[in-house]
Each structure stands twice: as C-alpha cells, then as structure tokens.
Design brief:
Elements: E1 5-9, H1 13-25, E2 29-33, H2 36-45, E3 50-54, E4 56-57, E5 60-61, H3 62-72, E6 77-81, H4 86-95, E7 99-102, H5 107-122, H6 143-155, E8 162-165, H7 172-182, E9 190-194, H8 203-208, H9 225-228, E10 233-237, H10 244-256, E11 258-259, E12 268-269, E13 273-278, H11 282-287, H12 293-299, E14 302-305, H13 316-328, E15 334-335, H14 339-344, H15 351-365, E16 370-371, H16 373-376, H17 378-389, H18 428-446, H19 451-458, H20 462-471
Parallel strand pairs: 1-2, 1-3, 3-6, 6-7, 8-13, 8-14, 9-10, 10-13, 15-16
Antiparallel strand pairs: 4-5, 11-12
Helix pairs in contact: 13-15, 18-19, 19-20
Length: 479
C-alpha cells in the first residue's frame, strides 16, 4: 500500500528541507514546491492527502492556493503563518484551510496536525454521516435540517474555530457533538463547559488547571478543561458570559495553543479545537464593550446558525416520536387526534428543549399512553418556559437586623396584584420583563446606584445584577 503523499510549498529552502525530512521520518512521501505556479502544477498532476503552504510566496499568496484547493477538492490544506500573525491564520481558516502552524515551526505540533489531516483522508465516509442518517444526533428531514447537516459535514473536516448561534433550546451542544463525532478527533475527548456557571474566582483554575499548593485549598495538582480536552474538542457554551479578565487569558491560550497552570513556571502545549456557543448576539456584545473584539474574531472564524423549531415545523412528527420513544420506550406512547396541529400552532420559544418538557408533562397526564390536546397545557408551558429561561428577579425585603441602614424610600417591589385568567396580559413575557426592570430600577435608586448594595438588597450576586442590567438595557446615570 502506497504511503500518503504530502505537498510542501515554501520559498525558504532551509524550512522546506526541514519539513521534508520531518515528514519523510513519519513514513510519508513528500513533494516540494518553491512557487505558487509550481504548486499548482503538482497539485493538478498528483493526488495529495495534505498540502502545506506558506502564506507568502515569490509569485503570489498561499491564500490563493487555499481557496482553489478548498473549492475544487476535499484535500486538506494547511498554512504556515509568520510569528504573531494570528490575523493571517484567521483569514486562511475562513478561506477553507484545514489548520495552520506558526513560524518558527514546532515539529511536535506539525506532526499532530499532519496526523489529523491524514485521518480525514483515510476515513472519508465519516464526513457523510450528517446526511440525515439515523446515526445523526440532529433529528429532522426539513430543508433547514438537511442544509444544517450538510454544513456540519463540511465543518467537521476543518480544525477552524466554530461559533454556534441560536436560541435557547435549539440544540447548540448537540450540533457541537455532531461536529466532533464526524471529525478526525472523534476518538478523543469532547468537553462541554458552561461558562456562565463557573464562579469568577475559580475560572482560571478550571480552564487551565493548577499546581499543588498554588493557592489555599489546592491540595493536589489538577488539570483544567484544556488539558482534559487535549487532542479533542472543547465547547465553550454561553461564552458571552465570560468576564473580560478571563477573555484575555482565553485569547492567549487559543492563539498560542499553550496554557500555564496556576503556580507553574512553564507553559504546556495543548491541541484543542474550540467550538463556542451563545444565544446572545456577540457582535452587539462587542459594541457594548462586554466582549473583546479580538476574541470575537478568533472564535467567530466560522459561524453555524441553528434554526429555531418554529422555522422547521415539518420536523415535529419525527421529533415528537423520537422524544416519546426515549421517554416511554418504543410504542409506549402516541399522539392523539389533533395533537400535531396544536403543536404546529404553538411558537415554541424554548425550541426543542421546550417540546421535550411539554411532551414529558403531557405523558404524565395521558391515559393509556395516548396524549390528547388537553394534556399539552401549552399556555402553561409558555409561562413555565419563560420563568425557566429568564427568571424575573424577585426582591425579598431584608429583615431590619440584616439590612444595612438606608434612607427611607419607596418600596422596592411593586404592589402585588392577583392575576387571574381574565387579567393576564396578552404579551406575558414583555409584562414579566417590565416588572423585572421596575424592581431593579427602584432598588438602584434606593441605593443611589451602588451595585453591591443593590445586589444584596435583591438577594442576588453582583454578577447576576450586571447581567440583568445588560439584558434589560438599564443604564446607570453618568456622574
């Protein structure tokens, strides 16, 4: 069986020779080219399992070769970028490059990248698993889902960072797992991290690990998320919730592909593909200054947008059957007359996650496992989903003994008014949002916009208060 063949394109004779020797020692056949013209001729005459090209060549840019190869074949193509040229790497990845290595070339990193590329060439059928087959995690035969699976099949062949966007409950983690499963990293770990659930003072330790004795309570050495995902994929869910200080450290880890544990003096290399996800508009977060622009460009190399459930209602029957089969076993539950029509008429603000909750609750009320329209309780589901996804802040007035002395002011919480079916507002989410806004604004006025005291008064953390103020567009007055 013939050895895999690699094409190396670089005008520096010494580097070209170093790369050739390294690849030959890996048991690979190597062709070399010093110009773009020569590379095009060799690529047209031979079948390569990987093309490795410098970004700057005497007669053009390696980026031209990247675009040509990415658009006309499935051959992975990687680029060599100058030290500190992270922007060039991002441009190349957007153009279709499989991956990149930086000068001066670290041979161990080069070998890892080459092995990943060869795995793609050896198992081309794996990339086709997203064609709607039963093995896909993303269920549905609608046009939107078929397009999504096709896009995932292409993205799985690249090592470029991916930013998954979509509403809450749309399946962002499922999409990330599908990309990982179809990639050359499928046999390595997939680590999903909810960035909004990690206490700010523990973030650096959780992401990068720590040495024994690095801080109080560090009784033993521990790896972080990057080390746990080494060789595989790290998913940063709700990445918009990262504080600015942590964003700086994360940016360096992504660019340098190295991390340093707390208490360590040396960095260690990590080979991790980053997939980020958020239900927020990261571009707007950049505009408002709560998310770094350079990190945004580093994470948002390729964007994958997930369609909400209301835009793929044709998938409701297959989704409902799959969920019921998981809840009650095959044939253990079914939908009665008119149930699918009732589901199609509902907007599903919580998307597939809400559909699961609705069917699980309906199954509990169903007779003999047959769900009827009245079992769905869709209006109640809308209220419950709103409360679960975006819970309103409930102010609990502190007891006189626990509360700090404050000047007399209007009560924080608005006067309670019983809400019966006839008095419910038409737009309940907007009503709940306005109630939450009023509560926070009154608390801020009472504490003269002291956020620490306001958070204490409301019974929440300062970070939660800051998040709610950003979400509700509550601005502190300028001094």
């Amino acid at each position: 069986m013939a050895s895999p063949r690699i094409l190396v394109v670089d005008d520096e004779a010494d580097l070209r020779e170093l790369l050739e020797i390294t690849l030959l020692k890996m048991g690979l056949d190597v062709d070399c080219a010093a110009t773009l013209r020569e590379a095009r001729r060799l690529a047209g005459d031979n079948a390569y399992q990987l093309i490795l090209t410098d970004m700057r060549l005497p007669d053009g840019l390696g980026l031209e070769l990247v675009r040509e190869v990415a658009s006309s074949s499935k051959t992975p193509i990687a680029v060599i970028t100058a030290f500190g040229s992270a922007e060039n790497a991002v441009v190349a990845l957007k153009a279709g490059a499989f991956d990149y290595v930086s000068k001066p070339v670290v041979l161990d990193e080069l070998r890892v990248m080459v092995r990943s590329a060869l795995k793609l060439s050896e198992t081309p059928s794996e990339a086709a698993q997203g064609d709607g087959s039963t093995g896909s995690r993303l269920i549905g035969n609608s046009q939107a889902m078929q397009a999504l699976r096709a896009q995932i099949g292409k993205l799985a062949r690249s090592m470029a960072p991916i930013a998954i966007t979509g509403e809450s409950g749309a399946g962002k983690e499922l999409a990330a797992r599908e990309i990982h499963a179809q990639s050359s990293r499928a046999s390595k770990p997939f680590v999903a991290v909810n960035c909004g659930a990690i206490p700010e003072n523990l973030m650096e330790s959780e992401f990068f690990g720590h040495r024994k004795g690095a801080f109080t309570g560090a009784g033993e050495e521990r790896d972080g998320f990057f080390q746990a995902a080494n060789g595989g994929t790290l998913m940063l869910d709700e990445v918009a919730d990262l504080p600015l200080a942590m964003q700086v450290k994360l940016l360096r880890a992504i660019q340098e592909r190295r991390v340093r544990k707390i208490g360590a003096t040396a960095e260690e290399p990590v080979d991790v593909r980053i997939i980020s996800a958020t239900h927020k508009d990261l571009a707007k977060c950049v505009e408002t200054g709560v998310f770094r622009q350079d990190l945004f460009y580093r994470l948002n190399v390729i964007e994958l947008a997930l369609p909400p459930l209301r835009e793929r209602l044709d998938d409701l029957p297959v989704l409902a059957n799959a969920i019921l089969a998981r809840l009650a076993g095959p044939g253990g539950a079914s939908l009665g007359p008119g149930v699918l029509d009732a589901l199609r008429a509902y907007s599903f603000p919580g998307n597939v996650r809400e559909l699961e909750n609705v069917l699980e609750r309906a199954l509990a009320f169903a007779n003999d496992g047959v769900i009827q329209v009245e079992d769905l309780s869709l209006k109640a589901a809308r209220v419950a989903e709103t409360a679960r996804v975006e819970p309103p802040v409930v102010a609990t007035p502190p007891t006189p003994a626990a509360a700090p002395p404050m000047p007399a002011a209007a009560p924080v919480a608005p006067e309670a008014t019983p809400l019966g079916p006839a008095s419910l507002p038409i737009d309940l989410p907007a009503y709940l949002e306005q109630v939450e806004r009023d509560i926070i604004q009154r608390a801020l006025q009472q504490t003269q916009f002291n956020r620490t005291r306001t958070a204490s008064l409301l019974g929440i953390s300062v970070r939660q208060l800051r998040y709610q103020m950003q979400k509700l567009d509550i601005q502190a007055p300028e001094n």
